[in-house]
């Protein structure tokens, strides 16, 4: 048994040395990658454990809601009532909008009728509409005093003529010489 025992530990040492050499070369080549992978696995395990710890605390609330159907029914009824109120408000807004559109269309129709009548009479329809509006306003306010425009000075003197070239200031334009062009 002696000769067989001798080579066994020697082979074990040789195998151990080869294993150490292989592990050492792998660590020297990929050590940083292995370290980063280990840190990532650690962080992932921590997050999973936190999410598992948070889940059971949420389940009793769900179990309580399942145990109390009255609470669930009340919530659903409240939601249905709120939806119904919102729908009624939306319908009311739609009705108001439709009514405003009808009024606008009626007003446009009246204006077109007035325009057509004034054109049949041979009058200017725009002037007629303005007169009608002014009559309505003057009927509302019995005492209206026509306002006179304030006297405005003209921007230039009365003798200014842009074609004469006089009084125009420092700018003046003169036509070029007539004749053959000097270019070449």
Automatic annotation (TrEMBL):
The chain crosses the membrane at residues 27-45. GO terms for biological process: endoplasmic reticulum unfolded protein response; retrograde protein transport, ER to cytosol. Residues 156-170 have a biased composition (Gly residues). Keywords: Coiled coil, Cytoplasm, Endoplasmic reticulum, Membrane, Selenocysteine, Transmembrane, Transmembrane helix. It is found in: Cytoplasm; Endoplasmic reticulum membrane. It comes from the Eukaryota. This is SELS protein. Residues 124-184 are annotated as: Disordered. Residues 83-114 form a coiled coil.
